[in-house]
Amino acid sequence: MAWLDGRCTPDNPVVERTELLDFRFEGRRIPLIDNQLGIRKPKDLVAALSMLTTYTSDGQRAPYEDALGPDGFLRYKYQGNPQHYTNRGLREAHTLGVPLIWFFGVQQGLYLPFYPVWIVADEPEQSQVAVALDESQTRLADHTSLTPLERRYSERISRQRLHQPVFRQRVIRAYNTSCAMCRLRHVSLLDAAHIIPDRDDRGLPAVSNGLSLCKIHHAAYDANILGIRPDLTIQVRTDILQEIDGPMLKHGLQEMNGLTLTLPRRRADRPNSEAIEQRYEAFRNAS
């Protein structure tokens, strides 16, 4: 985890599979992930060291959406047979209360690490464990009898700590680390904008419901200063086009009118047409 602290930065928080497989500690090669299995349990350790979620393309539905339980805690499935040594390693981590690392795939061979995480419950009937992403979650009462307020808090933590960062990485990388409107490529100035807002039940954290936008165009999109037509052409609100201000208004907003979005190379990552149409109707109603 200390190595990850130094390796990962806000602008580059991901690690490559080759780095994780070649990790060395005190001169010894000790891979941080298993080459074939989702759970890494080194033979010299009593408990599991890490968990891994493989990257999968997420057309309409994010692959991790089902991982959130009704108590607001995330779930991680066993690796095959419940008595497999890797699953026993997860249960041992729960018994000992030791932290793990969760590597989440955001692209082929590229992972966003979450650490420390804790196993807070073993659920053998469902072949899974419950995972806390924040130490504050481990201090909640029995996760099977949370109050409504505690459940909402736990769910908010899980979404903020996992869903939002994974969504951001997947969307920005799908758009080749550039703004879909102005082509700005400074990653620290880019956001992953939802087409259908995440507060809406239809606002899934899937790449096809996202756009890579610079911060000013993200804010303008959310504020309905500009919209995206079903043909993926940018439309600036009429009153904004008629304003006279400074160079930012002229070049940053007004000159976007009539331009076409830059799209991801993969079709599965491109904006969902129904989501674009719904969001455009909201823009027209606001105009």
SSE map:
Layout: H1 2-7, E1 15-16, H2 17-21, E2 24-25, E3 28-29, E4 39-40, E5 50-53, E6 74-77, H3 85-96, E7 100-107, E8 110-123, E9 128-132, H4 135-138, H5 148-174, E10 190-194, E11 210-214, H6 215-222, E12 226-228, E13 234-236, H7 238-242, H8 247-253, H9 273-286
Parallel strand pairs: 5-7
Antiparallel strand pairs: 1-8, 2-3, 4-5, 6-9, 7-8, 8-9, 10-11, 12-13
Q: pLDDT average, as an integer? A: 90
DSSP, total strands: 13
State the helical fraction.
25-40%
What number of structural domains do the residues give? 2
Radius of gyration: 21 Å
Largest sheet: 7 strands, mixed
If you had to describe this structure to a student in words, what would you say it looks like?
Strands 1, 4, 5, 6, 7, 8 and 9 form a seven-stranded mixed sheet that branches. The chain contains nine helices and 13 strands. Mean pLDDT is 90; it is low at 59-65. The radius of gyration is 21 Å and the shape is elongated. It folds into two domains: 2-172; 178-286, no CATH class. With 287 residues, it is α+β, with helices and mostly antiparallel strands. The protein starts with a helix and ends with a helix. A hairpin with a 2-residue loop joins strand 2 and strand 3. This is HNH endonuclease. Pfam families: HNH_2.
